[in-house]
């Protein structure tokens, strides 16, 4: 009977936790809705446009902080905050390198977080080693493919090494995400790569589509949401495990 009561209690706790989490997500949903409703043109950069674009990510920063505390500023919350800074920079085309630098630092923080004990993983199976290999081959292949287009840019001397460094960091981040074996974290990293790939292909005139901004922003917000939720879920599971150990002691 005690086991049944404990199981029922755990189910109620999980249900209540996800209900509260959904309430915490309302600011993210509202700010995303506002961004897509206003759809301020890229040709009209302003502080207002920067704020509206960064608002969904800032709401995720508050979400992660509320669950994980101030230490997450050197983890996923910090990565999200840097991403919001990158969003603001990319409003102005001349700040592209600065924005890319913000996102590179965000990937670095994500990578370090995914190596922490909270995300500790067992030894990699063959399927995951194969996934790591695919990620690295894909990253190198994309960089090599982009190289001729980057060299046509007036700022090629800066862009060629900068893009190379960025590709390196995002592939490391995706590799560390795969290591966690957490579906939300892994999918978030892969969708993030898809978003950045779309930026690269359209910015450097490899391909062009009238829906490029839609693709970039939908995949970007979705990726950050999955990474934030994955981090919160890891903390909730860690706390639940600690509680179970305490009950058994």
The count of strands amounts to 0
Helix content: over 70%
**Low-confidence residue ranges:** 1-6
Per the principal axes of the C-alpha atoms, what is the gross shape?
globular
Q: What structural category characterises the helix and strand content?
A: mainly alpha
Q: Count the helices. How many? A: 9
For the CA atoms, what is the radius of gyration? 20 Å
Largest sheet: none
Number of domain units? 1
Could you give the distance between the termini?
19 Å
Along the chain, the helix and strand elements come as HHHHHHHHH
- Work out the strand percent: under 5%
Mean model confidence by pLDDT? 89
Catalytic activity: a 1-O-(1Z-alkenyl)-sn-glycero-3-phosphoethanolamine + H2O = a 2,3-saturated aldehyde + sn-glycero-3-phosphoethanolamine; a 1-O-(1Z-alkenyl)-sn-glycero-3-phosphocholine + H2O = a 2,3-saturated aldehyde + sn-glycerol 3-phosphocholine
Enzyme class: hydrolase
Membrane topology: Multi-pass membrane protein
Subcellular location: Membrane
How does this model look, in words?
- The structure is a single chain.
- The protein has 249 residues and is mainly alpha-helical.
- It has one domain.
- 80% of the residues lie in helices and 0% in strands.
- The chain is built from nine helices and no strands.
- The protein has helices at 2-24, 26-38, 47-68, 76-90, 96-114, 126-150, 156-180, 183-203, 212-248.
- Helix 4 runs antiparallel to helix 5.
- 33% of the residues are buried.
- Mean pLDDT is 89; it is low at 1-6.
- One of its GO terms (molecular function) is alkenylglycerophosphocholine hydrolase activity.
- It catalyses: a 1-O-(1Z-alkenyl)-sn-glycero-3-phosphoethanolamine + H2O = a 2,3-saturated aldehyde + sn-glycero-3-phosphoethanolamine; a 1-O-(1Z-alkenyl)-sn-glycero-3-phosphocholine + H2O = a 2,3-saturated aldehyde + sn-glycerol 3-phosphocholine.
